[in-house]
Design a protein that fits this description.
It is a single chain. This protein is of the alpha/beta class and 354 residues long. It has two domains: 124 residues, Leucine Dehydrogenase, chain A, domain 1 (Rossmann fold), CATH 3.40.50; 177 residues, Rossmann fold, CATH 3.40.50.720. The chain has twelve helices and twelve strands. Strands 1, 2, 3, 4, 5 and 6 form a six-stranded mixed β-sheet that branches. A six-stranded parallel β-sheet has the order 9-8-7-10-11-12, sandwiched between helices. Helix 8 links the parallel strand 11 and strand 12. The longest helix is centred in the last third of the chain and has 24 residues. It starts with a helix and ends with a helix. The chain binds nicotinamide-adenine-dinucleotide. The site of nicotinamide-adenine-dinucleotide has 24 residues, from helix 5 and helix 6.
Length: 354
Amino acid sequence: MNVFDKMEEMEHEQLMFFSDKETGLKGIIGIHNSVLGPALGGTRLWRYANEQEAIQDVLRLSRGMSFKSSISGIHLGGGKAVIIDNPQAKKDEAFWRSYGKFVDNLGGKYITAEDVGTNTQFIEYISRETEHVAGKPEYLGGGGDPSPVTAYGVYLGMKAAQKQLSGSDSLKGKKILVQGVGSVGQYLIDYLVKEEAKISIADINQANIASVSLKHQVDVIDPNQVYDADMDIYAPCALGATLNDDTIPKLKCSVVAGAANNQLADERKHGDMLRDRGIIYAPDFLINAGGVINCYIETVGYNRSRAMAATEKIYDQTAAILTIAAQNAKNSQEVALEMAMKRIEDIGKIRQRR
Ligand code: NAD
């Protein structure tokens, strides 16, 4: 892969490679676009098969963050970091503080947070070396785990999609399949139970299945049977790319609304396929933005009710995008992307005038 060609193609501003022999830390920070503000996005710790895979991931994820923040109306650009998980490296306090120093070197152009493989404990270590970090634990003045806020946004996006389908946003009696009952999936189920939805769950982690089953009355589905299951709403809350050539023709639902990032294997092709099948798709990066909104509120002075109020806008935003998509027979993901890009473009023009 030619990295500069790839950066040009995906319109990235900066990639920063870092390595620390002492702690075994190595990774990449990707800054896609900082027109709307400092680039914020989590740090992913992952065992990449090779460096190309890590580069590809940081480019893709940081670009996604630009659009997520833009569509949410918050004043942040898009960034993300990946740490190439070296099983030999000791991932102790020194490891994370070393990473914090690299984040600090960017002088606030990039603000980090949690992602897959990182947690509030690591964030605390990172915060000893840099102030450019969000998702700090509450006792350090942070917003803590963003998952409940993400789940709230997903729930509201789901309701807006249901309203687009039937004229009512009630989820009462709807058969909803939640695929992946980790942090976000479990908080989402709490909202769905209050609405008296009929919930089924699928997960590969038996402990998570058990914790939901103990708390709520749910049907448990084999993870391999998800796409054949009878459901009104499919809520992908585990992995990306679950909407693809194989799964879309099988789906029996009328709405897809979930937390997972990059649900469409190919945004154009699979967004179109869902539209052609008459399935309403609530764009993932729009309805799962509660987490980044929570981080944004942390950067301006954290207050949970303010974060929840800002997340509430996801309902109207989803409704507006689905209406435009329906009126123009367009793919909802593309409508959302166009809106997100337009805001960056418009603000970029204003900033050039200075
Ligand atoms: P999590 O790791 O807590 O939960 C994911 C769950 O999915 C786990 O229980 C896991 O066992 C399950 N899973 C993995 N593979 C599966 C499979 N093949 N079939 C069924 N279940 C499977 O993660 P999370 O924080 O709940 O995030 C869920 C999704 O939402 C992820 O894609 C994440 O990137 C996205 N997301 C999360 C947040 C947030 O605030 N946590 C914000 C935005 C987007």
